[in-house]
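ingest -> validate -> predict -> emit
validate: passed (alphabet ok, no gaps, 254 aa)
predict: started
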Amino acid sequence: MSGARADAQNGPTPRYRRVKEFIVRHLEAGDWRAGDQVPSESTLVRQLKVSRMTVNRALRELTHEGLLVRVQGTGTFVAEKRPIFNLVELRNIAEEIRERGQRHAARVELLKAEKATPETARELGLSSGAGVYHSLLVHMADGIPLQVEDRFVNPQTAPGYLDADFEAVTPNEFLMRVAPATEVEHIVEAAMPDARIRKLLKMAANEPCLRLRRRTWSGAQIVSAATLWYPGHAHRFATRFSYRADGTSKRTYL
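emit:
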């Protein structure tokens, strides 16, 4: 890797791009498979005879491109193929994970009754200071954090919520039993997580998330308002629509 390699049209290839090409060649050849740890920065510096800054930039860009996953304090790993989540259909995350052949597990970080802030009250159609249920869970696929679910629930619609075992049944499953959804609202945006969310998802500093805001109704009542956080480098959402001759739409869940 020492010395400059010329590009006929654009001049010498930047060193960080040559490091990226080196890593991508190993990925394409199957030398490093999903979940494998790639050589450390120090190893790549010695092997490729480039600076640590050059290696760091290459790893950072490959992470943003979704090819690698950097776990703070552990190392850099080959990313799994990005899972695709449906926006139109209300799916249970445990079911989606199992359909991909992975093992779902959940860890409950918080489950309690509290008073609604003005913002939470507006989301749930309640008065400010009204009682609400608040849960915070980390959903994992094969032990890797996949989603942080921060959910507020209207107690009138979900008796028994605080007594549920959310390591055995997801909040989605519980709520669909006691207050089946008749309407769903989804808002997706890119967002920077705070330190707590970043720690729960084991994300590197300055890495963005995909944030899905979801509200569900059962009849005329708002049941829950949830914020779902996903590591941005490893997830995407997609829905496809087609139209019949009579003008009605058909949804294809991607």
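The chain has seven helices and 14 strands.
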